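W.,

You were right to be curious about this one. When I first looked at the sequence I had no strong expectations either way, so I just let the prediction run and decided to look at it fresh. Below is the sequence, 362 residues in total, followed by the output.
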Amino acid sequence: MCLKSTTWIFIYQCSEYIGLPFLYLFIYSIHQLFSDKISSKKFFITVSILGFILCTIRYANVFIFISSLPFVFFLKGYSERIKFTLFSTIVCIGMLLSIYLLFNYLHIGSFASESKRINNETDHFWKDTYVDFIGFINLSNPFFYLKTFDYTTKTKLFLSFIFIIIDFIFWYISFRLLKKTKNIFVKYLVIVAILNGIITFFAAMAQGIEPLGIRILFNSSYLFYFALLIVIRENNVLSDKILFIICLLSLVYNCCFIVKIPSNFLFYKHAVEKVAQNKSSLPKYYFDDDEKVIETVYTIPIINKTFYYTHENKQPNYIYKAILRLINPSIIFLDKAPQENNSEIIYSSEINNFIEHKKSAD
């Protein structure tokens, strides 16, 4: 049920999939603590290490532990040992992370490269906030992440309205299933998932780096779907066969959504590889100097209504980056034009020119 998220992060080589095994071990340890199947000492040592690793892989993972604190304070009906163990472990993770951030500050001049990560532009603040809000609503949808933010036409406005309604329907179904559960582990997952999403929402407002989407909300999605799956299986809401079919459909849909037109990807892959091979050395940098944008034209049958849409993952720059990352995983994508031209830099114009020459020759 988390294939929407896992498919996306594995395809696009995000840092989230590196932390996925540690996140799973953290969830397993929490389950063992609530089930009284692990000693306080073993839990403290294990989860402190796991938590520190998660936070160093991705700073946003600290929100998981911040979201756990309210749950600890309002936890009722459980021994003080469990509450104290969980609280002391979170404090230990915080102390370890503080030491790590202090080390960064002393050696690189910032705690988490915040000077480079925070976007101070406020021109589109409210639009970005609205986009983040829609992204947060999509948290309940385990299948697809489709949003339209351009409301210049009635068609796009109608589609956006339909997508939002579908997301709210998933919220309604989810809470109908979750509200009666007495499983403390499930309650923990749901509370942390929602609080993590809320904290991430406000962090995105403050930083303005990128809109909330599958990658940014991965932790919340993973925890929320994990809880939902437990409740579905505990109450026999759906059989394992139906769950498998749902997951299979989700996998097929998300793979098709990501790939879309395989022939185009293979064509671009050949062009990028040829340009890279013509360099005297393996390209270490990439810069999009052409900024070429391709619009997809859609025509609705019968009424012959035509509209244009710019697909992010159909843009040459987007595809070039993905292919270059396969050729050289450590390649650096430049945001500003380099001061000098050298063989270590590959430009989008070089690839586009190669493609144009190839088309002319054919």
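Here's what jumped out at me. The longest strand covers residues 296-300. And, maybe more interesting for your project: The chain has a mean pLDDT of 78.

Coffee later to discuss?

I.
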